[in-house]
Amino acid sequence: MNLKAIISSIFIKKEASVIGVDIGMSAIKIVQIRKKKGRAVLETYGELSLGPYSGLEIGRSAILTPDKVITALKDIMREANVTSKSAGVSVPLQYSFITLIKLPVVDEKKLPEIIPLEARKYIPIPISEVLLDWWVIPNSENIPNSVGSNDQNLRPEGADALIVAIHNDALQKLSSEVVGAGLNTSFFEIELFSTLRSTLLPGVQTQVILDMGSSATKLYIVDRGVLKVSHTISRGSQDITLAISKSLNIGVAEAENIKRKYGLIKNEEYKELQEIIVLNLDYIFYEANRVILNYEKKFNTPIGKIILSGGGALLKGLLEISNKNFQTESVLADPFQKLETPAFLRDVLKEAGPEFTVAIGLALRRLAENE
Questions:
Q1: How deeply is 268 buried, as exposed, middle or buried, from its count of CB atoms within 10 A (0-12, 13-18, 19+)?
Q2: How far apart are CA 3 and CA 9, in angstroms?
Q3: Which helix or strand (DSSP H or E) is residue 307 part of?
Q4: Using DSSP, how many helices (H) and how many strands (E) does the chain show?
Q5: What pLDDT is stored for residue 138 in this prediction?
Q6: Residue 256 burial by CB count (10 A; 0-12/13-18/19+): exposed, middle or buried?
Q7: Quick one: pLDDT at residue 117?
Q8: Start-end ranges of CATH 3.30.1490 in the chain?
């Protein structure tokens, strides 16, 4: 290799663009970034609803065949002018199994043998059918400041382990879709870890992330950067749309438009809209409060902040009702603040931020791999 080729290869390695691809139930989100002068710089982003690919309305959850997913991936890359093929790809939470287990007192060198044996007690399918990963979470004040730290200097005695299992079939399906779309990926990551990477705030000891998707709401409790609780609530933004459609006797597409236009803001045209939405949110808030209160009681630790993420977090008026229900300060996730973005787009990106927490988290991890 000549000197020019060596210089070029070094330049490409440091400056190459990467993408984060979040394949959700109702939409695909994509973000392309690159490293410039030590900063992650936004190049492009986009979102594509999946409902129409299954003959459904925008905003509806859709179960697509691999061919349809491949088509959708190609469409969003073209529409968003994505140029990179180097990707990090999300694994939906429903394809995974996550739990905390107590570690026996053993030499930490034996943990790779012990943990799979212990995990069998909790994972409802054969270990041979899943990809298993784990992280030690010590029960001490010396908790690492990064999610998923597996520092071998930490003693496992009296500690927990966070067990993560992903079914091999799900990974094979995702892999075939990614390859079919012409992408290269070095990892698949469960969406919650991508969300934590892009969303967690500095300086707050215990945080709750309430991730409102189309078909479900995920709740994560994080203490000093370590995931402590992961809980799924079987209601999402799609349920609100369907309730509006049924109550007002209108089509789903119209109900979705009305929800996005007015949300929880009072209006004269649809006076009962606020009540319809609140009735559906009450269940989500009740379940979330139950999990939070149990955590606070068990660990005697107050929650410092509630962070709202996901497409459902864009509902107008949600922030105010969240503050009232949790009696703790709520904020909207702002993952774009971790990127260098054009000044004229900052307000737009801040408003859209909750939808792109997973995609940005994936892109940040992929970019870090290039260093």
A1: exposed
A2: 10
A3: strand 305-309
A4: 11, 13
A5: 62
A6: buried
A7: 85
A8: 95-168
Helix or strand holding residue 173 (H, E): helix 168-180
C-alpha separations of 359 from 247, 303, 310, 349, 364 in Å: 34, 26, 11, 13, 9
Distances (CA, A) of 365 to 18, 44, 88, 359: 10, 17, 8, 10
Cα–Cα–Cα angle for 60, 190, 204, nearest 5°?
100
Rounded to 5°, angle at Cα 259 from 237 and 315: 60
Q: Average model confidence (pLDDT) for the chain?
A: 87
342: left (phi over 0), alpha (psi -120 to 50) or beta: beta
Q: What per-residue confidence (pLDDT) applies to 158? A: 58
| Interacting residues of 211 by C-beta distance below 8 A, sequence separation 6+ | 192, 195, 217, 218, 219, 220, 309, 310, 313, 357
Residues of the chain with CATH 3.30.420.40: 3-94+169-240+272-369
- 281 bridge partner residues: none
**Cβ neighbourhood burial of 235 (10 Å; 0-12, 13-18, 19+):** buried
Residue 171 burial (CB count, 10 A): 15
Beta partners for residue 167, in sequence order: 130
- Contact yes or no for 338/5 (Cβ under 8 A): no
pLDDT at 349: 95
In the chain, which residues have pLDDT < 70?
Answer: 1-15, 138-158, 204
C-alpha neighbours within 13 Å on the C-beta side of residue 158: 3
What are the tokens at 366? 């992929």
The CATH number fitting domain 3-94+169-240+272-369, selected from 3.30.420.40, 3.40.50.300, 3.40.50.2300, 3.40.47.10? 3.30.420.40
Is CATH 3.30.1490 the classification given to domain 95-168?
A: yes
